[in-house]
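Allow me, if you will, to draw on your knowledge of protein folds for a short while. The matter concerns a single protein, recorded as an amino acid sequence and a row of backbone structure tokens. Could you please explain, in whatever detail you think fit, how the structure tokens follow from the sequence? I remain grateful for any guidance, and I place the record below:

…
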Amino acid sequence: MIDFYTFFQRVQQATDIATQHDLANALGVNRSAITQAKRRNSIPQKWVLALSRSFCLSVDWLEFGEGAPEAQPLPQSQGTTSFTVPKVLATLCAGDGSFEVEATPVEEHIFKESWLAQKGTPSAMVLMDVIGDSMEPFICQGDTVLVDQSQTTIRPDIIYAVGFDDSIMVKRVAAGPDKVTLMSDNPAYSPVEIQGDELLSFRVIGRVVWSARDY
């Protein structure tokens, strides 16, 4: 099993992840999970797979240092490049917060890479299911959203996947002096202000760039 320090050095070398806080954001886990992995000096296999898919890195290189950092490109079909986006176990709550935060991939979905590139960085994208009704009618219970984890700068009137303490949510986010405000589209839900020491437990996972709904 790969040790924490070797793994982290390779991740820093091949991505824009510079700190352990960045690593936690990329994996969609709480900072305490990174601390525990560092203490054990080992990395869960699912983290290797998650970062491989998010940043298009070779699993063999991440885990064993073999070959090149970049994964082999996907085959082209009739001149159109496809790109596989993982759907992860974690669920975003359109409400008070979901405690299902695992970044483990459970499915794969194929998109046209040029379409993804118009919305952000394909290698940093994941699909997540939504539970709750606080973002209705724009995002509804049972929708699947596409989250670009490379877009974490808070901008007005944009929907983000965010984490607070040990839960994750989908909300509109407003940044103010020494605080952030989480806002719902459903008027039945009041804004939530996070400020002071609470900000240490807040993170932006990524921007919601697309959603899908079954009928």
The longest helix spans residues 4-14.
